[in-house]
């Protein structure tokens, strides 16, 4: 989900009262939601009426994300409003709530509370990531490529997030630049679990056609050809490889710059296209790291743990890579606001 970032707050605050009923949490108003126990991060004494909407941050997966401010403390949050429609959409929202209430990691965006509105929508109160997303940073840089040192820091942080999720049997299924949120300290956190899945059995099907088509792995399109010895977590590795390469090239790696493809074009590029070309100037470690992620056969892709030990990630000075990423964030101009 794209998130717009700004360097300072607007001079005037648009106060929009949020609907509220006597029930103030999803558990109160939506007993059909099966929710895991709350991790320590949740603040159960907040109410929707305590929050003032400031602006829209972005849209995605059936929801709208607002920047909101707590009226008494002045703390900024992101409020994600999710509509609950048909049974399929209901399951998606329930799953996202379950995952966010279960996860407790610095590599995953923190959910502070869950509310329900009179219309039946669900609102998630999330931590506000003040530097936007990797997609918004790339756009603010006019899609100028990220340097390898910064990409090493990005890869390490996202891999740590995937390691946490996968160790808890969660497959994200929509890793892309817009779903990787950033704060000014250079921390990257995985967000938007609308199409994610908790694998409760070893043979749970995770090949369903959900998520963003451009970042889907070949086995998601054609499981018969590319899903041999199927590893449910390998699709997240493919998406990570495309994401990191896109940040380096400045455009989606499998198509020419500026092309706006349809579904069939994307499927052909992902399943039958040649491996993406990389500039001759890239290091051998970077080239090998990407190739390990973008193996068409899911069983041939490296695991998250293997990639964390890859020389492109583990062979670099971590503080130097982190500094390169922070410098990139601080030097990026603010994107155009809504």
UniProtKB/TrEMBL annotation:
Protein name: mitogen-activated protein kinase kinase
Alphabetically ordered keywords of this record: ATP-binding, Kinase, Nucleotide-binding, Phosphoprotein, Serine/threonine-protein kinase, Transferase
Family statement: Belongs to the protein kinase superfamily. STE Ser/Thr protein kinase family. MAP kinase kinase subfamily.
Segments traversing the membrane: none
Highest taxon above the source species: Eukaryota
CDD domains: PKc_MAPKK_plant_like (cd06623)
Reaction(s) catalysed by this chain's protein: L-threonyl-[protein] + ATP = O-phospho-L-threonyl-[protein] + ADP + H(+); L-seryl-[protein] + ATP = O-phospho-L-seryl-[protein] + ADP + H(+); L-tyrosyl-[protein] + ATP = O-phospho-L-tyrosyl-[protein] + ADP + H(+)
GO biological process: response to other organism; response to stress
Domain Protein kinase: 51-313
Residues that coordinate or bind ATP: 80
């Amino acid at each position: 989900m794209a998130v717009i970032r700004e360097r300072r707050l607007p001079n005037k605050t648009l106060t929009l009262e949020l609907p509220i009923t006597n029930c103030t949490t999803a558990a109160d108003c939506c007993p059909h939601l099966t929710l895991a126990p709350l991790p320590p991060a949740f603040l159960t004494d907040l109410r929707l009426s305590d929050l003032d909407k400031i602006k829209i941050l972005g849209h995605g997966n059936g929801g709208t994300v607002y920047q909101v401010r707590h009226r008494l403390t002045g703390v900024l949050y992101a409020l994600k409003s999710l509509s609950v429609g048909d049974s399929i959409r209901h399951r998606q929202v329930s799953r996202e709530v379950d995952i966010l209430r279960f996860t407790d990691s610095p590599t995953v965006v923190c959910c502070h509370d869950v509310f329900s509105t009179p219309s039946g929508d669900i609102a998630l109160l999330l931590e506000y990531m003040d530097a936007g997303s990797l997609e918004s940073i790339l756009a603010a840089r006019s899609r100028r490529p990220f340097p390898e040192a910064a990409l090493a820091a990005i890869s390490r942080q996202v891999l740590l997030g995937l390691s946490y999720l996968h160790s808890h049997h969660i497959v994200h299924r929509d890793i892309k630049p817009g779903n990787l949120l950033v704060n000014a300290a250079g921390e990257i956190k995985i967000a938007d679990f609308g199409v994610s899945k908790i694998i409760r059995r070893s043979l749970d099907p995770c090949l369903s056609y959900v998520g963003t088509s451009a970042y889907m792995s070949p086995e998601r399109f054609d499981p018969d050809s590319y899903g041999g010895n199927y590893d449910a977590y390998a699709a997240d590795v493919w998406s990570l490889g495309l994401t990191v390469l896109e940040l380096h090239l400045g455009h989606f790696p499998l198509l020419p710059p500026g092309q706006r493809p349809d579904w069939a074009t994307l499927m052909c590029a992902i399943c039958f296209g040649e491996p993406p070309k990389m500039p001759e100037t890239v290091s051998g470690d970077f080239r090998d790291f990407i190739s390990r992620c973008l193996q068409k056969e899911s069983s041939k892709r490296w695991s998250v743990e293997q990639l964390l030990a890859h020389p492109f990630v583990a062979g670099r000075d971590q503080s130097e890579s982190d500094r390169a990423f922070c410098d990139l964030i601080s030097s990026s101009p603010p994107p155009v606001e809504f």
